[in-house]
Amino acid sequence: YGSDVDELVALLDKQGLTPGSSLIERKNGHAVFTQDIEMAVKMYQTSNNLPDTGRVDEAFIKSIKGKSK
User: Which own/partner pairs from 36-40 qualify as long-range (CB within 8 Å, at least 24 positions apart)?
Assistant: First the structure.
């Protein structure tokens, strides 16, 4: 959890892939990387021809940031 997960949630939200703000688990005011967030990452990866690992790697970040401009 932390600001990096908050940024990830914001990027996924721009793509319409977050599970909804009421379903996002928070700890100390920050989003937590749960199975729901992992599934959203996999859905993005699948729809953008990336390996659907659920991991937030360099290729994922480059792709989603490019689409979120």
Answer: 37/5, 37/8, 37/9, 37/12, 40/12
DSSP summary character for residue 53: -
* Alpha carbons 16 and 60: distance in angstroms, whole number: 16
Q: Please tell me the distance from the alpha carbon of residue 61 to that of residue 37, in angstroms, as a whole number.
A: 14
For 30, residues 6+ apart whose C-beta sits below 8 A from its C-beta are 1, 2, 3, 5, 6
The letter for the amino acid at 23 is: L
Mean local confidence (pLDDT), 11-17: 92
Q: Which two tokens stand for residue 46?
A: 């699948």
- pTM: predicted TM-score of the whole model, two decimal places: 0.89
pLDDT at 26: 93
Identity of the amino acid at 39: M
